[in-house]
Amino acid sequence: MTALTLAQLAEITGGELHGDGNVSIHTVAPMDRAGEGEITFLTNVKYAKHLGECKASAVMVKATELEHCKTNALVVADPYVAYAKVAQALDSTPSPASAGIAASAVVSPEAKLGSNVSIGANAVIEAGAELGDNVVIGAGCFIGKGAKLGANTKLWANVAIYHDVVMGTDCLVQSSTVIGSDGFGYANEKGEWVKIPQLGTVRIGNRVEIGACTTIDRGALDDTIIEDNVIIDNQMQIAHNVHIGYGTAMAGGTIVAGSTKIGKYCQIGGASVLNGHIEIADGVIVTGMGMVMRSLPEKGIYSSGIPLQTNKEWRKTATRVHRIDEMNKRLKAVEKLLEQQED
């Protein structure tokens, strides 16, 4: 178990220490359950009244809530960001693979491995693949011919990286994700599907994190691009030639069709669907289950869909939706009649 003093955590978070800096902290816990040796945080001021009851060894708060603390405190600009940094410092998550190369791993003699590379059991590294320093490859992973992974990148078990995929430094990919599979490209000749070989690849920047069971397709001619500092959740489909801009966050279950360009610092809510060949401006927020059928050229918050109702209410709403054309015709007829009466 990792343990750090409160003074050390103050340095990590940039926080101002109030209390005993020698207190040992081994984990982060919720405010209502935190106890000795644990640190908690306050992000919602409406819970400030509970600080006096908190039994944690320390609390991370903004300066405006310090007066409510009855224990050691770190005063920080953003308690949630501080929580993230402390959680990283105390993280006890094991490595995806033990140090060194497992005996059952299959590594081509034509692959290039940096220093301190770890490769788990039954992983396959093909010819021409390049793994940077400190790369960790989990059990059962596949790294195809010519693929390149930058320094400090980690893959959990059973990740498949197809040929010629390029991934930057400090990336993290969760289990069973597939990067570089064929895009959905076919021509139709008199009812018969003719496969179009996907000749591009996938290029992923630095500090990109990709969740479990996500698929990112390679480009048809040009490449699929994921810029630096992008976070992609679980069970997502990123189609061929999609371009995702710097710092964008995409929540689980989202589907992005081919050749869509998503700007920088966008936030795409879970279970959203984005049509192909459209462009999303920088800073766009799409709330959960958004159906984006056309380009969004301006920054803003966008929503679609019908919020949950009782089945009885939903059936009435659905019936009315089906009658919109009829209701529109009736409305126009009434407006025309009123105009005639005014004349």
From TrEMBL:
Q: What is its EC number?
A: 2.3.1.191
Query: Which GO cellular component does the record give, naming just one?
Result: membrane
Q: What InterPro entries does the record tag this protein with? A: Hexapep, LpxD, Trimer_LpxA-like_sf, UDP_GlcNAc_AcTrfase_non-rep
Keywords (A to Z) from UniProt: Acyltransferase, Lipid A biosynthesis, Lipid biosynthesis, Lipid metabolism, Repeat, Transferase
A Pfam cross-reference name? LpxD
Catalysed transformations (reactions) = a UDP-3-O-[(3R)-3-hydroxyacyl]-alpha-D-glucosamine + a (3R)-hydroxyacyl-[ACP] = a UDP-2-N,3-O-bis[(3R)-3-hydroxyacyl]-alpha-D-glucosamine + holo-[ACP] + H(+)
Pathway(s) where this gene product acts = Bacterial outer membrane biogenesis; LPS lipid A biosynthesis
GO BP terms in the entry = lipid A biosynthetic process
What is annotated as the active site? Answer: H240
A GO MF term: UDP-3-O-[(3R)-3-hydroxyacyl]-glucosamine N-acyltransferase activity
- Enumerate the spans annotated as UDP-3-O-[3-hydroxymyristoyl] glucosamine N-acyltransferase non-repeat region domain: 22-88
Residue ranges the record marks as coiled coil: none
According to the record's subunit comment, the protein's assembly and interactions are:
Homotrimer.
Q: Give the family per the record.
A: Belongs to the transferase hexapeptide repeat family. LpxD subfamily.
Described function: Catalyzes the N-acylation of UDP-3-O-acylglucosamine using 3-hydroxyacyl-ACP as the acyl donor. Is involved in the biosynthesis of lipid A, a phosphorylated glycolipid that anchors the lipopolysaccharide to the outer membrane of the cell.
List the protein's name: UDP-3-O-acylglucosamine N-acyltransferase
* Species the sequence originates in: Vibrio maritimus
Encoding gene, per UniProt annotation:
lpxD
